[in-house]
Amino acid sequence: MPSHHPAPPRSRRQFIALVPALGALSWCVRARADTLLKETDPEAIAMDYRADAGKVDAIRFPKFKPGQTCANCALYGGDQGAASGPCGLFMFKDVTAIGWCNAWEKKA
Ligand code: SF4
User: Which of 104, 100, 81, 105 shows the shortest CA–CA distance to 37?
Assistant: First the structure.
């Protein structure tokens, strides 16, 4: 019986090396799902994002028409009926379905 332990097979070593990466990835996915864009976030300010389209200043934004919301914007990726979802503009944060920003575009 040899006294030394054989080295783990290569595939096992590769898997072990991957574990921290997988952990970081699942953390990112969870963090992303938990993070709602705030009106005070710099990227939100840059796009004049409002969490409630009803609060959009129609004088400041003449292109805004009542009825326009993230839920019917071309860049919105949330599930139908969900309160919030991802937006193509804000990579790591969700926007509210009833929100609006200056980049609103009619869903095709
Ligand atoms: S681009 Fe569209 S979905 Fe994204 S925040 Fe602006 S209005 Fe909402």
Answer: 100
In short, whether 101's Cβ falls inside 6 Å of ligand 1 is yes
- Whole-model pTM above 0.85? no
Q: Is 11 exposed, middle or buried (0-12, 13-18, 19+ CB in 10 A)?
A: exposed
Tell how far the Cα of 32 is from the centroid of ligand 1, in angstroms: 17
Q: Which domain holds residue 59?
A: 36-96
Residue 108's closest CA among 80, 76, 86, 81? 76
CA 37 to centroid of chain Cα atoms: 8
Q: What is the pLDDT of residues 50-65, one digit of tens each?
A: 999 999 999 999 999 9
| Ligand 1 proximity of 53 Cβ (cutoff 6 Å) | no
**CATH number, residue 61:** 4.10.490.10
- Into how many domains does the chain fold? 1
| Nearest ligand 1 atom to alpha carbon 47 | 6
